[in-house]
Amino acid sequence: MTKKIYFCPAGGAEQIGMSCYNIIIEEKGKKFNVMLDCGWQVNDPKSKIVSLLDMGNFIRDRLIPPQVILISHAHADHCAGLLRFIEEFPKVEVYASPPTVDLMSSNTLEEFIRSYRRGKKKEYLDYKEERDKEIEKLKNKKIEYIAKIKLINDEYFHPLSNVGSFRFIPSGHVLGAVACQIRLNIDEKKDIKIVYTGDISIYR
Known about the structure:
about 30% helix, single chain, 6-stranded mixed beta sheet, Metallo-beta-lactamase, Chain A
């Protein structure tokens, strides 16, 4: 039986930033969701999707929770929502390159904290003792969630459950940045190939 494939952007479709795209494979009523990046527009209070919680609810209610998330690189508009999504969807498998995970470990705490604070009252944010407690708690959460990310350090194809396979290709944009090539098994005779570039920089 031929599979159906849907492309559903949860962010990034109508604005720069918040890159978050869903490839949904459906067969016999069962669906499998591969999410490409999990960005958040940290400094844009006017974003059409105003919070990661809203984005998570949109994905849960309108699509399906992701089974796999592939992260292209460590810039906030491609990965700042990841730690919140790991909490929201604890069974998800996340893949990234080792340098990307290293950069995320050092530079995403601020975005992680902001994603939690979005929507909280200003009086709460100004209360230093509560704020410091929150930061310490989030530091521990960040370490726990980062440890769940699976590292891909080669250009070979890796299984994507029973729907296909994927591989990372260096894209040059920033240390560890990759493009994602996905092969989906449509039927016994046909594969579909999808390339998600993330951000690419070519230097000569």
